[in-house]
Write the structure tokens for this entry.
Amino acid sequence: MWIRGTARPLVGLLLGIEISIIALAPAASAAPMAPDGEPRLTPRIITRSYHVEEPVQVSRWYVPQHRHVHSHAQQSGHVPQDGYVSGYRPGDGGRHRKAADRRARTATGTARAALPALNLGRVKHRHATVRMSHDHAAKYLLGAGLRYRSTGHCTDRHVNTCTSLDSVRTGTVARIIALKHASDCPIMVTGGTEVGHAPGRFSHGQGYKLDISHNACIDRYIAQHSEPAGVRGDGARLYRAPSGTVYADESDHWDIMFK
């Protein structure tokens, strides 16, 4: 009777020990084993972040301040360490700017060295040629005190006995008016753009030349305000003004080229 009462607690105790051994067996088999067959401790799972001991040299604009991340972590009761650390220091801004300035100066100097030398003194302004009708040109001349005449009493450009100002350059009209004002001499235009004159780039037909009659006043002014420039092929003496105007002294008129 005593044996039966004592055996029951003993059997329960042995059964509990066996169950504990069976439960521990899978965990022991799953643990990593050392080379000598002894079980090794399983490493704990990392549940927190770590930061690098030394600063990482990265540009400052690649290190954002994750304020929304930190605020969310604080609300949850856990504040993680920064995921990465910038090598930027407050005093580095000047160093970065100086390095950028040196690179910019080097690039500018290289670009300048690659460009050829340019002599701006030889650059000339180019303007589109504007031409006038005979009526408009004649109106300007008469308004400035000049006159014009033709042996044929006509203004047809296609008749050589006429005096035409059709398609004359505005610069030519302006320069002959300037000559009138500078010399204060009477000026009579006797030749314009009509046919019968020598051809060429700076010719009557192209609107660069006008003929004016001789008179003592204009002859004296041209001689005093221009330099001799040789003799033309037909024997006419040439005079060149500082403005570039060339006067050819023909027998009965001045043949003037306005460039």
Q: What stands out?
A: The chain has a mean pLDDT of 76. Helices lie at 2-30, 67-76, 92-114, 134-143, 170-183, 216-224. The longest strand covers residues 209-213. Residues 131-257 form one domain.
